[in-house]
Design a protein that fits this description.
The chain is mainly alpha-helical and 435 residues long. It is built from 20 helices and no strands. Helix content is 77%, strand content 0%.
Length: 435
């Protein structure tokens, strides 16, 4: 078999295995092993190459950034900072028509700057914001849609685990990726707020009409109490992002400093016991192992592609078609959206980026800008059926059997379309990535 034939067969078989329920990492590693075995005709070569790929992938200081930011995010979750942020944002925006939704977006945007994990945002704000929005008159579909849409900000606003994964795969600076994600993340948050205001005014049947708080409840949060609630979050953002951009820390060191400070905040808020501390450590190990296993499997897949010559053959094939950069980018984005129906965001990056990087290299593409485009494209998959992992997390976090999974997908659909608009902003205004 030729390299192209092996590549096409491996992709088809891998998608089939995932649809049949096989774990993504296992499917990637298995297909990679068999592909090299068939191409080289020697099982020992396949074993040797993939062993080296597994060893070299994680034997790097830069990979320490993954468990450290995961650990920081779990300490932040344990500290209940998400609830504090929402209380402050809610007090600021509640008087607006759609203000509760805007408060949820604002709180998620801030929370994203100290966790970097959108799934954590989805789980936390499902419990905090959805009951509050429904209690004040918003429809369940609108409430869960706002949470689903705004939760994806955690994948774009730094420090983001997805930005870290892309930086490691594309071999670009993690700090540069963090810088590049700031403006697109803010733009996407603003677009979400505009969408909420629009729907609240022109689609009241979909959003419902929220009543205004009355009496003591309207005055329950004073200025000094608000500052007290938001200060730990501002302090943590200052330590992590200020340390990185100020040149005090490397991203890995910033992750360690952030995890330590988040632990101190959890202790100070009396939210950390011996049992919860142990659970956080074990959860960090489990999540890190899952991410690194995916990265190792993707490295194996990348080696298989390289050994079989698929990237160079694919690049030559596309060149022979005289396909322009625009067409290649469209195909790339469509593939990301398609894979979003069956894979999580990390897996999409790990599968597609190694395949397309050699092609984009022929067009002298800015890899930092491409990374933001990639993250935005994969984020759309978090809200699209049948996987839509953010929607599944929200369903699993809800205690309301009357809100179905279809309600969540319907509520999230306007936000998925808004993300497409945000993606177009980044494509046509690359200066948003600060490069």
């Amino acid at each position: 078999m030729t390299g192209i034939e092996i590549g096409i067969a491996s992709l088809v078989i891998m998608v089939l295995l995932i649809y049949l329920g096989m774990h993504v990492a296992v499917a990637l590693a298995s297909v990679s092993f068999v592909g090299i075995w068939i191409f080289k005709g020697n099982i020992n070569i396949a074993v040797s190459l993939l062993t080296i790929a597994a060893k070299d992938t994680v034997a790097s200081y830069s990979f320490g950034v993954v468990p450290l930011f995961v650990l920081m995010g779990l300490f932040v979750t344990q500290s209940n900072l998400g609830r504090d942020i929402y209380i402050v944002a809610n007090a600021i925006f509640r008087k607006l028509n759609g203000g509760l939704g805007i408060a949820t977006v604002a709180a998620n945007a801030i929370f994203a700057a100290i966790t970097g994990i959108s799934i954590a945002s989805a789980a936390i704000f499902t419990r905090i914001a959805v009951p509050e929005m429904i209690r004040y008159g918003h429809t369940p579909r609108f409430a869960v849609g706002v949470v689903a849409g705004s939760s994806v900000l955690g994948m774009l606003i730094p420090p983001s685990v997805l930005l870290i994964v892309y930086a490691l795969i594309a071999e670009v600076s993690v700090a540069h990726m963090f810088t590049a994600g700031i403006l697109p993340g803010i733009v996407l948050a603003i677009l979400f707020c505009i969408l909420i205001l629009f729907m609240a005014k022109f689609m009241p049947k979909f959003t419902g009409t929220a009543s205004q708080p009355q009496g003591e409840e309207a005055e329950r949060l004073g200025f000094f109490k608000g500052v007290k609630l938001i200060f730990p979050t501002v302090f943590l953002i200052g330590v992590v992002l200020g340390g990185i951009y100020g040149g005090v820390f490397t991203p890995t060191e910033a992750g360690a400093a952030g995890a330590f400070c988040a632990m101190l905040i959890a202790f100070a808020k009396r939210r950390l016991s011996i049992s919860s501390f142990w659970n956080i450590l074990t959860d960090t190990g489990r999540i890190t192992a899952s991410i690194l296993f995916l990265i190792i499997a993707a490295s194996m897949y990348s080696r298989m592609l390289g050994v079989s010559g698929i990237p160079s053959q694919l690049s030559a094939f596309i060149t022979s078609l005289d396909a322009g950069f625009t067409l290649i980018l469209i195909v790339y984005i469509l593939l990301m959206v398609f894979l979003g129906t069956i894979l999580d965001s990390t897996s999409i990056i790990l599968v597609l980026v190694p395949l397309f990087l050699p092609i984009f290299a022929t067009y002298d593409v800015d890899l930092i800008w491409l990374g933001i485009v990639t993250v935005l494209g994969t984020e759309i998959g978090l809200l699209t059926p049948p996987l839509g992992i953010a929607c599944f997390v929200i369903k699993g976090s809800l205690n309301d059997p009357n809100i179905s999974l279809s309600d969540i997908f319907i509520g999230a659909f306007p936000f998925a379309l808004t993300m497409v608009v945000g993606l177009l902003f980044v494509i046509f205004m690359p200066w948003l990535t600060l490069n």
